[in-house]
Every structure is written in structure tokens, then in C-alpha cells.
Amino acid sequence: MPRWLPALLLATALPLPAATLPLQAAESKVTYGPELERFNYAYPVGHFSFESQGKHMHMAYIDVKPTKPNGRAVVLLHGKNFCAGTWEGTIAALSGAGYRVIAPDQIGFCKSTKPEHYQYSFEQLASNTHALLQKLKLNKFTLLGHSTGGMLASRYALMYPQQVEQLVLVNPIGLEDWRALGVPYRTPDQWYERELKTSADSIRKYEQATYYAGQWKPEYDKWVNMLAGLYNGSGHERVAWNSALQYDMIFTQPVVQDFARLQAPTLLLIGTQDNTAIGKDIAPPELRDKLGNYAELGKRTAQAIPHATLVEFDKLGHAPQIQDPQTFHAALLKGLADLPH
């Protein structure tokens, strides 16, 4: 039995609601459970049950049908430190414009199963997502991926090109191969030890520096505490272990070398103040400042992907859809209308 498994069996007392606690107390005490059991998304959540790698799994997902449908659908793929629920503003904008919107939580993330053992690959996550969409009888759609979800969306579009009529990549990571550039390798055990130290404070400091271009608004704390709540209380060790395996997947399975093979017309939405790069904290000093330069990486990627359109947000960081939703959603809706489909 893994040394951390008994912790999963311990019952935890329900905490006071975060709103009733001072900020620092809330950060240290709020727990949402290893599948965000006590964190509510803005939209109803469904669950897709299936078998994967010999284990029973369930994927949580949001499926919003518009009041006035335009006959099109968009599938939203979240990033490493995001969830289906963090798409709430984008879901509202898209469904309001007539699109059906599906947003899954990938296996190992957020409200979905955290396996005890799992071989993570972008191909496996794409296959899981494909199975969900087949169950929902969705055969043609626009695929939108943010951050790590951009790596997954790229891999999905390569595996199932007949389904993806448009591809949208929002500040995707993996626009450079960090391993090939000389970033040192961390083992899953090293990532695990790092992830065990995750807290609301560490999440906030990281996001301030990358996601929001040094800016901060009180409403961002909702998403900080959502992530921190995964790491608090019973199940936090399994959450940390799955996160470690996911970081290993991201680092060792680049997609940048395959961009030239993408067939779908592609919209790149890039906040140029982003500087996200996996392993930057342990990269040699002479390399560190060169990594994650999205002002340059966006342009390079637009040249590498056939049929690509680049839209840049010069004042925004890694999460433009949260930092400036009005500007982002205007660009997204225009891009979806302009791209062939």
C-alpha cells in the first residue's frame, strides 16, 4: 500500500465557509476535497464513467446548450492550474453567442478521478476526451485549449483531425522544448516533494508573476483558493502525486515539433506579458531569462502552424480570458466567425 494511501481514508470535518473567515485563516483552513467536492462551479456538472488503464474512472464535465443555438459547438480544455469551472466567463460569452459549450475536467484534475497509478500522456488524455465527446454525440466542433490545455488540444487535433473544424490556442505552454534547451530534469518524486508544499500563498505569488502580468484583483483569489483547497485535508497526497506525474508529462512530451502537421485553421490568442516555462526556477541563470518569452514565441508559433492567425494582447499575461474578459471574448468571437469551418 502506498505510504500516503491511508490518508485518503481519513474523514475530515467540514470547515467553516471561507466567506466567514479572515483571508489568511480562510487560506489555511478551507478544504474542498481531492475532487473539489465542496467547491461549486457556476454551471451544472455531469460525470462520464469509463475504464482506462484497467481502472474505473469518471470525468467531470460542463455541457451548456445555448438558448438560441447557431449550430456550432466549442470544447474548452483547461490548463494545469485551471479547471472546467474557471471557464465560467468564456462559457457565458460563447453560449450567449449561440455556441454549445463543453468543458471537461481531465483525469487527475479538479472534479475528476485522481488515480492511484496512471500513465499520463497527452494521447491518453485526448483519448479520454474523445470518448466523452462520442458519448455526447459531438462529432464536429471548435477545440479551444489554454495553457497545458493548448498542448492537449494540439495533440487531439493531430489524432482526430476529422473532428476539429477550428483550433484555438490561448497562451499554450510548450511553444518551446525546455528539455532540448537545457532545463534540468525533475523526477516525479522531486515534483511530488515540491507539490506537497503548495499553498494559497505560493499559488498567488506564482500567478501574480505570470498569469496576470504583475497585476492582481481580489476576484482572482477565488481561483487561488480553489486550487489550494485541493491540497488541504484528506487526499492531498494523491492530488500532489497526480500533479507531479502531470508535470513530468508536460516536460517530457513536447508538441512544438508537430505544429507543422496541424490541419485545422488555427487562432492564436496570446497575452505577450506571459513568461510561463516549466522548470524555469531550476534553469541555469543564463537560460532562465530567455524562457517563456511569449512576445516572441507567439509570432514563431504562428509561422510554424499552417493556416494560423495571431492575435496579441500586449498588456495581458498567461490568462487573458480572466484578466480582461471583455477584450478577450471580443477577439475570440471575432476569430471564430472569421476562421473557416
TrEMBL record:
Residues 1-25 form the signal peptide. This is Pimeloyl-ACP methyl ester carboxylesterase. One of its GO terms (biological process) is acylglycerol catabolic process. InterPro entries: AB_hydrolase_1 (IPR000073), AB_hydrolase_fold (IPR029058), AB_hydrolase_sf (IPR050266). It comes from the Bacteria. It holds the Pfam family Abhydrolase_1. Residues 73-325 form the AB hydrolase-1 domain. Keywords: Signal. The keyword Signal applies. One of its GO terms (molecular function) is monoacylglycerol lipase activity. PANTHER family: HYDROLASE, PUTATIVE (AFU_ORTHOLOGUE AFUA_2G14860)-RELATED (PTHR43798:SF33), MONOACYLGLYCEROL LIPASE (PTHR43798). One of its GO terms (cellular component) is membrane.
